[in-house]
Design a protein that fits this description.
mainly alpha, elongated, single chain, 5 helices
Amino acid sequence: MALCSKFTRNYTRTRSELKAEEIEHVPQEEQEELALIYRSKGLPEERARELAAHMMGDKAHILDTLSREELGIDPKELGVRPGWPPFTSFSFFFRWCYCSIISLYFLT
């Protein structure tokens, strides 16, 4: 697996884990942050607070919601398919070889 994809996956997983700890230890602050996010999207202040309070009550989905809205992380993408980076690398290598062989053919 490519070093960059490992780093990105570890970094996003760490940020998601920190967000989970914040939800557990300071839920009121996280609720306020979520209300501010909804306000920035155009909801009236009272409705944004109601929605944030409702979302904080749903423990199963609050980490997913805060990860998407606040951190810009899609938790479902943390498990990158392991075969994808090598396939991409091979694909670029194959194209480079193919273009080199074709250009040598036409030059000779």
